[in-house]
Every structure is written in structure tokens, then in C-alpha cells.
């Protein structure tokens, strides 16, 4: 017979478990635990896609800072730097598009008409699309890259004249406006692009887009959180039981196979961790 034990892990050595039993769980409690963890899976997908966007954005931002510290290099060096910059740009725009497309698809398929998450999500993304040129432009730039390749850009290295970084170098990366308008149908956005400067500075747009992604993530997370109060309360209750006995322990559920024959020792089948990372991320991103 399989038995489930609520326990705390208090390892005394790295990579070695030291479980302390708290109590046996009923089958109903274990089933509720599984249901609660599954209920958090939608948020986990949301946050994982957000983390991909953030990872790609920070890689882009960090490489920009690295480029600003350069003082020279031959033609091959600069060619490879442009290749890397374009690779990071495409990674970021692709993860942004995947983040939006995934949520549109999953919410449209699974959204309960009573809470209307799909329409609320569409309304929020439409708000950012309508308000920010960066959102509209970079959303369509990803399509441009898919069909026309990477846009021509200029690199202008200069010295900062004032402020705390005075004397340091700074690079401005810009797309050629007229080049963007050739060979691609931007639809209504073409009119906006035509009134932009002849060289469209890239990084301010990327930074503004990242702020939009953060806002959309917080918005959808807060919507999901309203539907997760019951599973969160149940999981937090079990965690509290463990921490009240073993404050520094990490909560787990142990799986034992206990035979009816007294002479047969119980067989340890493994342990199931609590989704602590997901629960922490849900709390932090909702702030």
C-alpha cells in the first residue's frame, strides 16, 4: 500500500537528504496536493516565458554595455560584434512574440467565460500596442526580420560629455529609417516610421518594450492569482505544518510502499517537492 508522508528536509551535508516526518497524509489530501500543484502550472508557464524574455533582454543590455567599453578593433571584430548584436536582438523579439502568442492561444482555448481572461489579456496588450510606438514597431520588426533579413544599422561611438559617466564611451545603435521602408509592407505603421528620425535609435525602444512586457506579466499574473487562492491556501497550510516543527526545513511529501506483512520493511519510492519557486515568483511578480 502506498503511503504519503508530509516531511521536512533538513540536509546536514550537501546533496544528501535528511527527512523529518511530520504526519501521514490522507489519500484525499494527497490528491488535493496534486490538484493544487497542477493549478499552478498555468502561472509557471507564464513566468517561464517571462523569464525567457528577461534573460534575452538582459543579454542584449549587457552586450550593449560591453560594446560601449570598446575603444577599437579591426573590421572582422566589428563584423562579429554586429552578428552577435543581431542574434541577441532576434532572440529577444522572438521570445517576446512567443510570450504574447502563447497566452493568446492558451487563454482563448481555456478561459472561463465567467472570468473572461482572454478578453482582458487582449485588452491589456492592445493598450500597450496603441500607446507605445516601441511596442508596435518591435512587434512588426520581428516580422520584417523573418521576411527581409536583419535591418541595416549604424554604430556611432562617442564620448559622454557630462553626468556621472563623463569621459566614458557610449555607442548608439540605430536602424536606417528609409532602408526599413523598402521591400516590406508595414501597413499603417509605415506612416509613423516615415516621421521618425532618419536613424532610429534601437536601445531606448528595447527598454520601453521590456517595461511593457513586465506590466503585461504582472497583469496576467494578478488575474491568475485570483483563481489560485484555494490551492495556494492549501499548500501554504501544509508548508506551515512543516515549518512549525522544523523552521529551516524544506517541505516535501515522501512516498512509501508499506506491505501488509509485518516482516517486510517499507520501501521508499521517492519524494515530491513543493512548488516553492513557483509560489515565490507568484508572490514577487504580483507586487
Description:
By secondary structure, the protein is an alpha+beta fold. The chain has two domains: 2-39 and 229-285, no CATH class; 55-226, no CATH class. It is built from ten helices and seven strands. The protein has helices at 27-39, 41-68, 75-110, 117-131, 133-148, 177-180, 189-194, 203-226, 229-245, 276-285, and strands spanning 2-9, 19-25, 153-159, 169-176, 199-201, 250-257, 267-273. The strands form two sheets. Strands 2-1-6-7 form a four-stranded antiparallel β-sheet. A three-stranded antiparallel β-sheet has the order 3-4-5. 20% of the residues are buried. The mean pLDDT is 88.
Count of alpha and pi helical runs: 10
Kindly estimate the percentage of residues that lie in beta strands according to DSSP.
Answer: 15-25%
Write down the Rg. 26 Å
| Average pLDDT taken over every residue | 88
Shape: elongated
Would you tell me the structural class of the helices and strands? alpha+beta
Short description:
The chain is an alpha+beta fold and 287 residues long. The protein contains 10 helices and 7 strands. The strands form 2 sheets. A 4-stranded antiparallel β-sheet has the order 2-1-6-7. It has a 3-stranded antiparallel β-sheet with strand order 3-4-5.
Name a few traits of the molecule.
287 residues; alpha+beta; 2 domains; 4-stranded antiparallel β-sheet; 3-stranded antiparallel β-sheet; 10 helices; elongated
List the helices and strands and how they pair.
Layout (H helix, E strand, L loop, with lengths): L1 E8 L9 E7 L1 H13 L1 H28 L6 H36 L6 H15 L1 H16 L4 E7 L9 E8 H4 L8 H6 L4 E3 L1 H24 L2 H17 L4 E8 L9 E7 L2 H10 L2
Antiparallel strand pairs: 1-2, 1-6, 3-4, 4-5, 6-7
Amino acid at each position: 500500500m502506498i503511503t504519503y508522508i508530509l516531511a521536512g528536509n533538513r540536509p546536514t551535508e550537501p546533496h544528501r537528504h535528511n527527512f523529518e516526518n511530520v504526519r501521514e497524509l490522507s489519500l484525499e489530501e494527497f490528491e488535493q496536493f496534486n490538484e493544487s500543484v497542477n493549478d499552478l502550472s498555468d502561472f509557471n508557464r507564464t513566468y517561464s516565458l517571462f523569464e525567457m524574455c528577461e534573460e534575452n533582454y538582459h543579454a542584449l543590455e549587457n552586450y550593449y554595455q560591453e560594446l560601449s567599453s570598446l575603444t577599437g578593433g579591426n573590421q572582422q571584430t566589428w563584423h562579429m560584434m554586429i552578428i552577435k548584436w543581431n542574434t541577441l536582438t532576434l532572440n529577444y523579439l522572438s521570445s517576446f512574440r512567443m510570450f504574447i502568442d502563447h497566452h493568446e492561444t492558451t487563454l482563448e482555448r481555456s478561459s472561463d467565460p465567467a472570468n473572461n481572461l482572454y478578453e482582458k489579456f487582449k485588452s491589456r496588450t492592445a493598450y500597450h500596442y496603441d500607446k507605445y510606438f516601441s511596442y508596435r514597431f518591435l512587434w512588426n520588426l520581428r516580422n520584417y526580420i523573418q521576411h527581409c533579413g536583419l535591418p541595416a544599422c549604424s554604430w556611432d561611438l562617442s564620448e559622454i560629455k557630462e553626468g556621472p559617466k563623463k569621459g566614458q564611451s557610449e555607442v548608439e545603435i540605430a536602424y536606417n529609417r528609409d532602408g526599413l521602408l523598402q521591400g516590406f509592407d508595414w501597413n499603417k505603421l509605415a506612416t509613423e516610421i516615415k516621421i521618425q528620425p532618419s536613424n532610429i535609435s534601437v536601445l531606448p525602444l528595447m527598454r520601453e518594450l521590456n517595461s511593457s512586457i513586465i506590466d503585461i506579466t504582472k497583469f496576467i499574473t494578478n488575474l491568475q492569482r485570483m483563481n489560485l487562492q484555494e490551492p495556494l491556501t492549501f499548500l501554504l497550510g501544509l508548508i506551515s505544518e512543516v515549518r512549525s516543527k522544523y523552521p529551516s526545513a524544506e517541505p516535501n511529501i515522501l512516498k512509501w510502499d508499506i506491505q501488509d506483512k509485518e516482516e517486510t520493511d517499507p520501501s521508499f519510492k521517492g519524494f515530491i517537492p513543493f512548488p516553492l519557486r513557483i509560489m515565490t515568483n507568484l508572490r514577487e511578480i504580483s507586487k
